[in-house]
Amino acid sequence: MENIAYIGLQKETLAYLQAQTDSQAFALQEVLEADLASALSHAENYSAFLLGEETENPIKATQEICRRDKHLSILVLTDKARLSQLKQAIQFSPFIGTTVRVASNEAGERLLSILEDLRQRTKQRRSYAQVKSISTPVTDFSGNLYQQIKAEYMGRVLEEAPIGAILLHSNGTVLTANPFSLHLFQKVEHEVINKPFAQLFPIPLQEQAERFLRQEYHLQPKQEFSLQEESAERHLEISLASITKGGAHSHLICIINDITQLVQAKQLMEAHLLEVEAINTDLKHTNHELDTFVYAASHDLKSPIVNIEGLVNMLDEELVEATPDVQMALKLIRGAVDKFKQTLADMGEVIKSQKAMESKAVSISVVEVVEEIKGSIESEIKMSKAVIEVDASQVPYIVFSKSNFKSILYNLISNGIKYRSSERFPVVFIKTAQKQDGIISLSVTDNGLGIPEKKQAQVFTMFKRLHSHVEGTGLGLHIVKRIVDKVGGTVTIYSQEGEGTTFEILLKQ
User: Fold this and answer.
1) What Cα–Cα distance (Å) separates residue 303 from each residue in 126, 291, 331, 375, 491?
2) How far apart are CA 352 and CA 345, in angstroms?
3) Worst-scoring range by mean pLDDT, 183-192, 255-264, 324-333, 352-361?
4) Which of 14, 207, 396, 457 sits in a 20 to 30 Å window from 429, CA-based?
5) Residue 366: what pLDDT?
6) Whole-number Å distance between alpha carbons of 34 and 64
7) CATH 3.10.310.30 describes domain 136-258
8) How far apart are CA 458 and CA 451, in angstroms?
9) CA of 95: how far to CAs of 44, 66, 68, 77, 187, in Å?
């Protein structure tokens, strides 16, 4: 059984892989990050190396593995949030070859397929290196010498290789082929030896194979061939490399890799992507229709409700000496009208928040936005004697949609004033801070009523209001959560009932 070495796997990922390895042809072997150099002195014992999410320095570890064994496949796992950043870091870091792949730890069942593919690629690279090392010094491939080389080397190295390997004369004649290559082309040895390379392929592909052999491999050493079979289509990746003798190209090494599963997986993924794109298009169309409906409904209902309110006021003025029952009826009608107007206002807020999602990100001064908000709620600040403070010394500017950023701060600051304690004047403190890995923290703290722990999970629900004594739509925190979720951020509540609340928002920059 083959070994796959790993460093720094999260418990959940490790448990998942261990649960699957019973049915696999490999076993997981842990290597401590501090012992990496020692483990790599026996790198040939591993068919792949897995760097987990908790690896302290995945770039340095990847460089060390590539330096010690350029054939060993490496899989670097990370969470979805860091995937793009780590891919770029790997891509542009020096001393890292093409044997490295970066994937999300949320890959699920695909993770086993990825590991299997990497194992096979390690085998292929090592086998190819052996083939080249034994083929280069050959000086004469005719007669007894050729038979001697075939017996001594091909039997030992290539007979069990998990890739196809064919030795060609410079004129394109097949000199020898290992069993796996015969299997790939579904031929026996006497059908191949001393035959033109192109005749290995079905007739429709022979011209492509001949052209690849004579011209194209100098420019592009790898080419894909699709073989139509009775039950399915098979895809082969064929590589050609020349063997030089005395400055002349005397022979060619041909390596064949069956990439059918890889191509099928790619086709399946592309089909899924097309399906997802179609669903997204339908969702966008549906959302647009819903926005249009909500806008039309809220607009068309405003005029009738204003008329009803006017009629109620006229009745109230005319019926000066109305009976208590009539007065109660008018009061109930007026209350129903007010609720209807509030519903229309809520619908308008939903439309506004949806449109704000589409605005572009720009560099924003945190202090300037806070000052704009203070100006827009100046009367509430004076009436409540509120104090609003801001510390943006660590992160004075944030790249974000200005309207969205203003909406976040407006809702959190105004809530800090609205839901103030009757025992003290309201104080709202805004702070920005730089976290690790390019994460920015935006926190808004107030000394208001606080939120009971059992109700904290409800605060982001649309139209949910925890305090009925204060006017509002119940949309403010829902809008904040939607905006932050849209950009891949998080919102966390820290609150103590009777003491105040802190909302901390983490954003990627």
Assistant:
1) 78, 20, 21, 31, 39
2) 11
3) 352-361
4) 457
5) 95
6) 12
7) no
8) 10
9) 20, 7, 11, 19, 42
Fold of 275-356: Helix Hairpins (1.10.287)
Q: What contacts 407, CB < 8 A, 6 or more positions away? A: 353, 356, 479, 480, 483
pTM value is 0.41
Give the range among 93-107, 306-320, 455-469, 475-489 with minimum mean pLDDT: 455-469
Chain position carrying tokens 């790198």: 43
* The predicted structure's pLDDT at residue 395: 94
Structural domain boundaries in the chain? 2-128, 136-258, 275-356, 357-509
Sign of the C-alpha dihedral, residues 287, 293, 297, 299? Answer: positive
Task: Render pLDDT for 446-456 as a digit per residue (tens, 0 to 9).
Answer: 999 888 888 88
Confirm if 503 and 456 have CB atoms less than 8 A apart: no
CA–CA–CA angle 299, 301, 302 (5° rounding): 70
pLDDT of residue 417: 92
H or E segment to which residue 133 belongs: helix 110-135
- Report the alpha-carbon distance of residue 35 to residue 129 in Å, rounded: 27
Of the candidates 24, 437, 385, the one whose C-alpha atom is nearest the C-alpha of residue 4 is 24
Angle between helices 83-92 and 58-68 in degrees, nearest 10: 40
Which CA distances in Å does 151 have to 146, 164, 169, 477?
Answer: 9, 18, 18, 77
Mean pLDDT of 63-80: 91
**Angstrom distance (rounded) from CA 299 to CA 10:** 53
What pLDDT was estimated at residue 136? Answer: 46
For the purposes of burial, counting CB atoms within 10 Å of the CB of 409, is it exposed (0-12), middle (13-18) or buried (19 or more)? buried
Q: Which two tokens stand for residue 236?
A: 């082969």
As beta bridge partners, residue 75 has: 50, 101
Q: What is the largest CA-CA distance in the chain?
A: 127
* Contact between 184 and 171 (Cβ < 8 Å): no
The DSSP call for residue 360 is P
Strand stretches in 170-285, DSSP E: 174-177, 222-228, 233-245, 248-258
Instruction: Assign domain 2-128 one CATH number from 3.30.420.40, 3.40.50.1820, 3.40.50.11540, 3.40.50.2300.
Output: 3.40.50.2300
Q: What is the pLDDT of residue 439?
A: 93
Which numeric CATH code is attached to 357-509? 3.30.565.10
**Higher-scoring residue by pLDDT: 136, 13:** 13
Question: What are the percentages of helix, strand and coil residues in the chain, rounded to 5?
Answer: 50, 25, 25
Contact between 314 and 334 (Cβ < 8 Å): no
Per-residue DSSP letter, 31: -
Residue 506, token pair as written in the block: 């983490």
Q: Are strands 2-7 and 26-30 parallel, antiparallel or unpaired?
A: parallel
